[in-house]
Amino acid sequence: MSYVVVVVDLVPVEGRREELVDQLRRNSERVLALRVGCRSYFIDDRGPDGPVVVLTKWDSEAALRRHLAGPTAAEVVDSLVGLLATPMVPRIVAARDTPHVPATTPRASRRPRPGASPTGP
């Protein structure tokens, strides 16, 4: 499974938090409707004194890059002009480019084979 998770902390202009959250909701609907590789778009409004956090999950880094190079990303950024007190700085917080392989159980925690000594092979 391949994916990339991006987090953006947004500090709204005083008195414009609700407008920012409403615009982010419209943006999320638009990005998800395009089916450009965005699996999820989560908005966390942390209350009157904290940032509004946006978390997106993408199919791959390539899908994220295609989105960022396209017109929709520029329109999303433009839609937030005047609503942010500080610049928007996206961060990639998780990425997986390889198939998920379950971790093996450490030898010390395995159950001993029937008839084997619990302290050695």
UniProtKB/TrEMBL annotation:
Residues 94-121 are annotated as: Disordered. Gene3D superfamilies: 3.30.70.100. Coiled coil: none annotated. Residues 4-93 form the ABM domain. Pfam families: ABM. Signal peptide: none annotated. It comes from the Bacteria. This is ABM domain-containing protein. It comes from Nocardioides flavescens.
